[in-house]
Specification:
The complex is a heterodimer of chains A (411) and B (147). Chain A is of the alpha+beta class and 411 residues long. Chain A has helices spanning 48-53, 57-65, 72-87, 93-121, 125-146, 166-192, 194-200, 208-213, 218-222, 230-233, 254-277, 328-340, 348-354, 359-362, 380-393, 399-410; strands spanning 7-12, 24-30, 33-40, 155-156, 159-160, 295-303, 306-314, 320-326. A three-stranded antiparallel sheet of chain A has the order 1-2-3, with no helix packed on it. In chain A, strands 6-7-8 form a three-stranded antiparallel sheet. The N and C termini of chain A lie far apart (81 Å). The longest helix of chain B has 16 residues, at 127-142. Helix content of chain B is 36%, strand content 18%. The chains are: A alpha+beta (411), B alpha/beta (147). Chains A and B meet through helix 1 and helix 5 of A and helix 2 of B.
């Protein structure tokens, strides 16, 4: 028999029923209490940032969409905003409105998806089936407007690729009415259903101070009372011309995060209606140069999960020199460790799900520098000598080849 | 085919339980797999049920290219499944590596690591395509002799 007062570790993941993506958690337990959590990422690391450097800007746009399939429009818009800023392109207003429209439709699909997953994690599978059925309405609209259900590919450098017809506007408005009615039902359910309230209240608490300390973003931070939303703080696309509220809650637990997301759905319907009503006339794209002038830009975007940051550095060619992606989950995942401490193991799936994690977004390569150790500076010649020495130790001799090369060069 | 084999085949085809494993996908195929299991498309009417452990599953639904870190885990999960077992590669990435082909951390498609029975292309594969692929796989099994 195991002694319950002893500490022991259990691994969760990379394949685990509670996790939809491969990531690994090593949980230290005493009895049912969690003492600490060690998160191991990298199962999803594909090397997108490096791949971007080898492809042209147009190719990168489609590659960047595949950073994450759920918030694909967020990543592609964020990247393109940076590229457009470097190139100094003035994107037509109609294109910006269409971008905003697709962004909000994406938020609706993502939040409905989350609600279903959260329901699944607390054993409320009926909610999963309900929300995913309703989610198909917005998926149909996205397929109608952009041509694909997921990974829309509507952005292009200098605008958008598809225009919206008046029939599509009517269809979208009709769908919004239907979804609004359904969302009202979910809000009612969230506010009145005792199973949900009792299961989610007081679980995964992240106080206002902790939220600031761990730099939480998106609904996770807003549910702790932090009024932080890039759409309002640093308006991009056409958010500056649209009126909407930033939803916050002071509950600071998983229940508050659920309510924040549900209410954000209502705000999204409002934004979609305004976009369609005020859709300006005009072109949907401006001509963009193939080569982007040298420069660098940082772009911010409020993805459904929180603030997404892209950094792009160009060198005057048709390929970027450096692309850096900071996805919202990377900012939130540190807070999860804090939320789980001294809680029960059974709360783990829903607490992890409550930040709406997306590990394919997060798995970027991070290099950590040792501050105590001084960096070595080598001249080119010293590096050359070092390389010859390193290889000769392993039985590869470049001496003869080098001599031949130098003879040929001297001729 | 004798009667016993016929009964085994019949029961096997009526309850193809699946295990979903993300081998480094971007989530797009994963949400489409879940969408195929929920009311609009309802893959469950063919007896398909999402299972949590490889030991209960007959079909391994893989999505995404195989990353270096996931490779050993994928093989291990495949080995844990009971015979007869089938692997379905969902999405272009899992068929061939897709857009990620050539990235330093990518081994290629699923077939670079384990044998694959059915390929469902698409970026992402739509729920309709996933249903079509699974049903076609089941049809091809009808002719096989059950052990």
């Amino acid at each position: 028999m195991h002694n319950p007062s002893e500490e022991f570790k259990i691994p969760i993941g990379p394949q685990h029923p509670a996790l939809k993506e491969p990531e690994s958690f090593s949980v230290a337990l005493r009895g049912e209490k969690i003492l600490g959590v060690d998160i191991r990422l990298g199962y999803n690391h594909r090397g997108i940032e490096k791949a971007c450097e080898e492809r042209t800007y147009i190719q990168d746009m489609y590659l960047i969409e595949r950073v994450c399939g759920i918030c694909s429009h967020s990543h592609s818009t964020c990247f393109i905003q940076a590229v457009e800023e470097i190139a100094g392109l003035a994107v037509p207003r109609r294109a910006l409105y269409i971008r905003t429209l697709v962004a909000e439709l994406e938020r609706i699909h993502s939040h409905l998806l989350w609600l279903g997953v959260a329901g699944h994690e607390i054993g409320f599978d009926t909610l999963l089936m309900y929300t995913w059925r309703d989610r198909e309405i917005v998926m149909d609209i996205l397929a109608e407007l952009t041509g694909n259900r997921v990974n829309y590919g509507i952005n292009t450098i200098g605008g958008v690729r598809r225009d919206i017809s008046s029939i599509q506007i009517q269809e979208t408005l009709k769908a919004m009415d239907l979804l609004e009615e359904r969302t009202k039902y979910y809000i009612e359910l969230g506010l009145e259903e005792t199973t949900i309230i009792k299961r989610l209240s007081g679980v995964g608490v992240l106080s206002y101070e902790d939220s600031l300390h761990f730099d939480a973003v998106g609904p996770t931070a807003r549910a702790s009372g932090v009024k932080r939303d890039v759409r309002k703080d640093d308006p991009y696309a056409s958010y500056g011309e649209i009126s909407f509220d930033v939803i916050t809650d002071t509950g600071a637990d998983v229940y508050a995060r659920t309510i924040v997301r549900l209410k954000e759905l209502m705000e999204s319907y409002k934004i979609v209606r305004q976009c369609l009503k005020n859709l300006p006339d005009g072109p949907i794209t401006v001509r963009a140069p193939r080569k982007i002038p040298a420069g660098e830009a940082l772009s911010r975007y409020e993805a459904p999960r929180g603030e997404d940051v892209h950094y792009v550095k160009s060198n005057g060619t048709d390929k970027p020199e450096r692309v850096k992606v900071r996805a919202p989950t990377l900012a939130n995942v540190q807070a999860v460790k804090h939320m789980l401490k001294d809680r029960f193991l059974a709360d783990m799936p829903i607490v992890i799900a409550a930040i709406d994690p997306c590990f394919s977004c997060t798995d970027r390569l991070v290099s950590l520098k040792d501050d105590d150790k001084k960096a070595d500076v080598m001249t080119w010649q010293a590096l050359h000598d070092y390389s010859i020495k390193w290889h000769s130790q392993r039985g590869v001799d470049f001496g003869k080849l080098n001599k031949k090369l130098q003879e040929r060069l001297s001729k | 085919m004798n009667v016993v084999q016929k009964v085994i085949n019949w029961s096997r085809l009526k309850s193809p339980w699946v295990l979903h494993f993300n081998t480094g996908a971007c989530n797009a195929c994963d949400i489409e797999i879940i969408a195929a299991l929920t009311p609009r498309y309802d893959l469950e009417r063919f007896g398909v049920l999402l299972k949590a452990t490889p030991r209960h599953a007959d079909i391994l639904l893989c999505s995404g290219p195989v990353t270096r870190q996931i490779e050993d885990r994928l093989v291990r999960i495949y080995e844990q499944m009971a015979e007869p077992k089938f692997v379905v590669a969902v999405g272009t990435c899992s068929c061939s590596g897709g857009v990620f082909n050539g990235c330093y951390n990518i081994k290629g498609g699923i077939n670079a690591v384990i044998p694959v029975s059915a390929y469902i292309p698409g970026c992402p594969a739509s729920p309709k395509a996933i249903m079509d692929g699974v049903v076609k796989l089941l049809q091809s099994l009808e002719q096989k002799e059950g052990k």
